[in-house]
Write a structure and sequence with these properties.
With 334 residues, this protein is an alpha/beta fold. It contains 11 helices and 10 strands. Bound molecules: 5'-O-[(R)-(carboxyoxy)(hydroxy)phosphoryl]adenosine (KG4).
Length: 334
Amino acid sequence: MGRDGVILGLGLESSCDETAAAVAADGRTILSSAVSSQIDLHREYCGVVPEIASRAHLEAVNYLIDAALKQAEAGFGDLDYVSVTNRPGLVGSLLITVQSAKAISYALGIPLIGVSHLEAHLYAPFLEGAEREFPFIGLLVSGGNTALYEVRGTGDMKVIGRTTDDAVGEAFDKAAKFLDLGYPGGPAIERLAERAEKREALFPKILPGPGDFRFSYSGIKTALINYVRKNPGTPLPDIAWSFQERALELLVRRTLAASRERGIKRIVVAGGVAANGRLREMFGQSRREDETVLLPSAGLCTDNAAMVAGLGYRYYVSGKSDGLGLDVMAKEFA
Ligand code: KG4
């Protein structure tokens, strides 16, 4: 199969509130990437409603697979493997594309490869020309996850720190909800912060202790709420700026500290919050010259299936095939 000596893979993703399908060539080039976001369906609840999410995935999945193949000018017969996110995520949502992937794998007789959504996010920069060299420090920042990893190879990721309470994206979403800025909160807070006139700290700093790579976000959110209640006249952009600064500096400090302590100079930052322009600026300002910080372009930071197709290629060439017994898991590790 494949085309012109190139290995083609279909990637599928439905772990949360985006349904996505994509075709990648040799795990490096995105031939197509189709994403259907459910944000409008969940907006009135200010968060993802699992039952609504599963139903919307079911409605979108076949259409997206067709769109991805068409955009890639490929047919089912050109595919060498199908990879799909099978963990972590909302179980009812994951099931939709896992079942589709099983049907495609069975009908075409091609390997079915289940991948971790988190590992897939950290693959995104390698679809944009960066060389995939190990080891690297991975910082994953999204609405459901905030974690630091030491990544030594495909499937070889060790957690070195994670949030003890809220994820950073969740904190942005909750802060935005409190400030009445709508959902998702991250982009709304970033836009507002750009208009801040007084760029000074309104909330206390959270300083990492040496060797401690944990994150915590519920304190920053509470500090924001208390500040706004006590100082009702403060302009919203100044509050947004201060919140964003505090939330992001913790990520940058922890990540660079982990990288320096372990002597690993390559860093990959991925997930929805990695789209934040101020986070990119902070890493640019704080990294040393011999440290490399790879951030995917904004479209590859949020959920997509190109990263799933790309990572799937690495497993495909290593001979992995999961078979039709592939299960879904709410958590990364059982
Ligand atoms: O990775 P993602 O698309 O979905 C999952 O969480 O699975 O991440 C979404 C999260 C939301 O919490 C959203 O508020 C946050 O990423 N986000 C941002 C920005 N864009 C999205 N946070 C801060 N700044 C942004 N520009």
